[in-house]
Design a protein that fits this description.
By secondary structure, this protein is an alpha/beta fold. It has 16 helices and 13 strands. The protein folds into 3 domains: 250 residues, Aspartate Aminotransferase, domain 2 (3-Layer(aba) Sandwich), CATH 3.40.640.10; 106 residues, Aspartate Aminotransferase, domain 1 (Alpha-Beta Complex), CATH 3.90.1150; 70 residues, no CATH class. The longest helix has 37 residues. The chain binds pyridoxal-5'-phosphate. GO terms for molecular function: aromatic-L-amino-acid decarboxylase activity; pyridoxal phosphate binding; transaminase activity.
Length: 475
Amino acid sequence: MTDALTQLRAMQSADLPVHGGRTLAYVYDSGLPDIDRIGREAVAAYAGSNGLDPTAFPSLLRMETEVVGTAADLLDAPETVVGTVTSGGTESVLLAVQTARDSRPGIERPRMVLPATAHAAFHKAAHYFGVEPVLVPVGPDFRADPAAMAAAMDDRTVLVVASAPSYAHGVVDPVTAIAAAAAERGIRCHVDACIGGWVLPYAARLGRDVPAWTFAVEGVTSISVDLHKYAYAPKGTSILLHRTPELRRPQFFASAAWPGYTMLNSTMQSTKSGGPLAGAWAVMRSLGDAGYERLARDVFEAVDLIRAGIGKMPEIDVVSTPDSTLIALTTDGSCDPFTVCDEMAARGWYVQPQMSYAGSPATIHVSVSAATRPHVEELLEALGKAVAAAVATGPVAVDPGVAAFIAELDPLALSDDDFDGLLLAAGLIGAYGREGLALPQRMAEVNAMLDLATPAMREALLVAFLDRLTRPTRS
Ligand SMILES: Cc1ncc(COP(=O)(O)O)c(C=O)c1O
């Protein structure tokens, strides 16, 4: 009988590779095997430790305060700054919104002002915490429009958000103007630097042109920065920083209203593995400031080379000049982005399809890591071939009748059987049970149809898909 670890390795071989610099979304790879090993060993060493009680596991408390201190230095924070290590960007965002809401208990129907490009984690926070999102259209370069943001702020606004950078387009919002408008009205301003937090400070140090976005900007009250992205730590860590302890206080939760231990939490999780924090601490200790600067140099060299290569491909272009390490590519109509994604996958590269939304065209998302630097030429060669193949196939043609049908679908009017039928027609589930669940090799047709659906329909269809995907395996 094969042992469990051998089985795991065999199962994992079907997943996207997390090393090698060819997976250009979901993973952030330093390309340094020793760093990965140190991170993994630290996670394993602390897998059973419980971050629930810092007095019981003081080494975790020490790691947390040191990690937050390093972040504070990097983000130009004042002496008063405080921070918490969370499980990821979404948890940092959720806590920023909950904290802002609970700091204004007198506001009955709280709102937050978001650029339309803010990460979906803010919509999740809106849903969880009953904070109405006020979505403000962005400018033609996909950067937030500070005047429009200011105009959207009112007496009910508890939070204003800017991204550094936005995930979908890789651009930094004009934080200085947005934070000033928020401060003038006494409203908190959160900068979502989940992506850029650990790489943009080094970009600035390397002499690149980066708009101001850190605590050096007056009016910025909190910042989220993920360690499992450009701090190249194992998955499961982000930091939420607040400018002062007073700003953070509503984030804490305590309950002595039961006969057990007094529950005292700074995050959404209560019991939490010490593994991710230990992994992040060990990676940060090992790389140090100089190590991160070297990795930033590598990743920005890769970004510049990729952009130069794309400049020679007439069929594709960046949607906006990227400020960071994320690139969004659009096509000129001779091919479609979804087919290019499939063609890249066929060549061993994962790039992520992004649907059109609110004036933003469908795009190809590329998150560049330091590990991609040595492979940029192969990447550009693959991209050139993928584009040529996509041009040869031509854009996915959806029958106009089907297109009209999809555009008019109302998720609220559909039954479970209707969803089964749609998922079957899209090739996302087979005719019967779990055996039929296998993603098609090529996703372009499915993505092109999803792109025609309303966002609400996309959500409903994908939720129905996830529901069927996650039915238990019974013996
Ligand atoms: C700007 C931004 N904010 C928040 C998040 C959510 O982070 P996570 O996936 O770690 O929960 C992401 C993830 O990509 C992001 O890019």
